[in-house]
């Protein structure tokens, strides 16, 4: 039973305010923090200003106190997600599933879990995550690793090697919000370098193109003024990159409402086409995508959905339609490692959780801990 709920403001990795919730229950205290994005989809669950959310919460708190932890998502729906704001809502919901599962969320979601996701990490970044490139993330995943330790280290080595090369060419300007290099090479040269280094480590490469961020009135505006692309041209451009670089993972190649071009690309490209801003972890958006054949993978970000129950409904639909689920961090992260449990519990082939920085390390540490807790663990494949 819930005895009390404490909410306090903290800072996320982008230096923005978010919340930490402490659920005081009869069996102990359970905490959770809320993540938040920078390149947010416009159909995500709505946030309200942290100060206002914290100020209003005492009005709603009495509805939770005295109830079972199992009821939290239900009470959130009754009160209204829009009234609580997504930060308080998702942190409450995560703390609740921690309470219900005694902090072993992955086991609670799947007592027979054996397979752990491959970490998908961004080596170079741009877009609204800061940097010189138009596309948001240049990603790697360790296809040949045998253990979680080796998988995480492989991504780290690629990140370090790329950093060293960029530094020797004086083509880097530090790290962005997600710890990715802010590289001064253009996107094509960045892909050349990433592919060369990833190949040395037997890793696969991919991109989060986050195309909504630079789409306006029917045109994709790249930082290179010579590249202003219509949707048809964007399709050709992305297809060309997939072929030339063997991209095994492509996220948000079109703007967030362009189901049609997602579907055209999914038919033409033989690779994983993933919707993030397109689906925003919402069951209804995914239903539309399935009908239209848009994508074959979906990013799962609990804070886009607003509660864990809503997140799991979307996952269930994705599994049914054979869409791959890729659990993901946000650019504005905290040290909360819930997404690691979620990815193992729902059997995601990949977890997008970054490579460098303490907020990313906490996810790696939890994955390594889960690896140790499972008898005969295995890494998943895509
Ligand atoms: C994304 C995420 C995480 P943000 O677009 O996939 O990398 O970014 O949290 O800014 O939406
Ligand atoms: Mg994305």
Shape by Cα distribution: globular
CATH classification class of the largest domain: Alpha Beta
Low-confidence stretches at least 5 residues in length (pLDDT < 50)?
Answer: none
Largest sheet: 8 strands, mixed, barrel
What percentage of amino acids are in beta strands? 15-25%
Radius of gyration: 20 Å
* Distinct ligands, ions and cofactors found in the model: 2-phosphoglyceric acid, magnesium ion
Mean pLDDT: 97
CATH level-4 homologous superfamily of the largest domain: Enolase-like C-terminal domain
The main sheet orders its strands as: 5-6-9-13-14-15-16-17
**How helical, in percent, are the residues?**
40-55%
User: How would you describe the oligomerization state of the chains in this entry?
Assistant: single chain
- In DSSP terms, counting alpha (H) and pi (I) runs of 4 or more, how many helices? 14
**DSSP summary, beta strand count:** 18
| CATH architectural grouping of the largest domain | Alpha-Beta Barrel
Structural class: alpha/beta
Describe, in plain words, how this protein is organized in 3D.
This protein has two domains: 2-102, Enolase-like, N-terminal domain (Enolase-like, domain 1); 109-379, TIM Barrel, CATH 3.20.20.120. The protein is α/β, with parallel strands linked by helices and 382 residues long. It has helices at residues 50-64, 72-79, 81-84, 86-100, 105-109, 148-168, 187-200, 231-245, 259-268, 283-292, 302-305, 308-320, 338-346, 358-373; strands at residues 2-11, 17-25, 28-33, 115-116, 118-125, 137-141, 172-175, 181-183, 204-208, 215-216, 219-221, 228-229, 249-251, 272-275, 297-300, 324-328, 350-352, 378-379. A hairpin with a 2-residue loop joins β2 and β3. The protein is globular. Magnesium ion (MG) binds at residues 208, 210, 251-252, 276, 299.
